[in-house]
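To whoever is on call:

I kicked off a structure prediction for a single chain this morning and the downstream step that reads the tokens threw a length-mismatch warning. I double-checked the sequence; it's 265 residues and nothing unusual in it as far as I can see. Pasting both halves so you can look.
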Amino acid sequence: MKSLRFFCAVAVCLLSCTCANSQAAPASSQAQPPAPSSAARATRPEPPPPDLATLQKKLMDFPQLATYHDRNAQLAPPAAGEKRVVFFGDSITEGWARSWNQFFAGKPYIDRGISAQTTEQMVLRFHQDVVDLKPAVVIVLAGTNDVAENTGPMTPEMTLDNFRAMLEMARANKIKLVVCSILPADDFWWHRGLQPAHKIQALNQQLKAWADGEHLVWVDYYTSMADANGAMKASLSPDGVHPNTSGYAIMAPLAEAGIAKAIEK
């Protein structure tokens, strides 16, 4: 019965992952089109279901270790004196890579985001995609897909436990961990009806309290990007979840400040 429940949870995750991968908003250096209204977001067409072969392939690699395996193997160790930084997260982090040079040209920063991932998947790939790259700092932006239930319902304590696990691995390998607030959202187009705005606010409060208790650097994206209702400001996102270039332009200096503070600690 446990195996059946696990299979079902993974299948739901993979359906969500495929939907999010197919629909994640691109971030580019070009001007973004006007953000759609709430009504336009509500009528967004649903993506087609994934084919069975795609699902079977992903079921064999739940944490999606294959995504960065080859690129990690080709990456040289940090140069002497280099303060390498890994940006670790989901589609919001992955999307940032498309305009990486606009924000972080020449910086020893590496993007290791995977669309639709929850924190439990990130724990499973933390060693391969963070520890093995030997960074000085890892900046973690995660939790959106926990609230969206991409791998099944998750309590805030489950999310916090996954952050604790990542911190334990980071500290054991002398890596400074920076914790980022979850970005605002008032609905998820791939899993509607969850009313996430207040859940994200509450989880951010718990994450910050935990980060403060562990003397970690906290990066607050939320305050600058949320409207009065807890949604992402319409000018900053094409779908209410993923930032556009204007959104990333707000996030970049906040991330830089957090990284600098962590390196100084």
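Update from on-call: the warning came from a stale cache, not from the record. Cleared it. Sanity check on the structure: The chain has a mean pLDDT of 86.
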